[in-house]
UniProtKB/TrEMBL annotation:
It catalyses: IMP + L-aspartate + GTP = N(6)-(1,2-dicarboxyethyl)-AMP + GDP + phosphate + 2 H(+). This is Adenylosuccinate synthetase. The gene is purA. Homodimer. One of its GO terms (cellular component) is cytoplasm. Substrate binds at residues 283-289. Its cofactor is Mg(2+). It comes from Sphingomonas naasensis.
Amino acid sequence: MERLLHSSLVSKSLREVGTMPIDVVVGGQFGSEGKGKVALWLKRTKRDHTIVVRPGGTNSGHTAYDRDGRRLVLRQLPAACVDGDVEIVFPAGSYIDPEILQRELNLTGIDPALVHIDARAQVILPEHRDAETQSGLVGSIGSTGSGTGAAVMSRIARYAPDHIRGVPIEEHPFLLRFVDDTSARMTRALAAGDGVLVEGTQGFGLSVLHGDSWPKATARDTTAAGFLSESGLPPRGIRDVVMVIRSMPIRVGGDSGPLFGETNWDAVRDDSGSRESVAEFTSVTNRLRRVGHFEAATVKRAIAANDPTMIVLNHLDHIDACVAHDAAMSAKAMRFLEEVETGIGRAIDFIGTGPERLSANVPAGLCL
């Protein structure tokens, strides 16, 4: 009876809140759109997030700059946690590599007491990484070999063989200290009107369900609905879906699937007028990324599937290096921006012109 009464009171309190302050950050292309930067920016500007949620595993890295300007590449911790002032939730739909988590806690100096892992989350074991390496996935589809895919398989197969069998979080000596009822924790925060930020991973084009390049895809869905499901959060609670795209989409190196208008980083540098190399390397495997020209079709499908309330376009400086200085716009950059908006049928709300810089899509001036 007490349990039923508690559940009734919580449900009533959530209904009274109305639209719950859940914000979800998603990628609209093939990952590396700058979701970590945007998630941290949201946390710093909205200021009501008390919980940051990181579904998924360690097969992608999120980059953030702490308040001292230190560049941090995180594979397990969410980028939005680097200020050390929010609770960190790894929900049931997350895949935890104990070694990486411990290393990143040491790197960031985050208080371990802020970390909460759902008992239903999955442990990534060395056996999972070995299984991916031995399967040839790294070469055949451009997998990062993190073991996340094998851990997903061990969860859904149910009859998985011993070499990819899962281990409950509570049976791992290092992770046991973090086990928590993450659903109840997030429910309490939402009932109090506190914001919950879900930092999605990878990009729409890599979704195993909705992407067009299977089997050269990730092992999970990468839509806002998928991230909410993995997090155990109610779909009616969304306040904002923030979709992040980039001017020139990338894919990981190797045979990782089709990429529209594929070019190379020297051409990007020369076309943008940059005086420095603009080449990018994957944060997990340190392989040179592939780069292509903007293609509206994938982004339009991502918009249809996610219905974003806000769209951020990063790496405008890859179109014209001029915009990296003082967030000034050039005629070339403005033409590109107009072409993107026409192609996707939506306005761009914010633009990114450097590793840390985001500004509203209102030109601050022209650089010539």
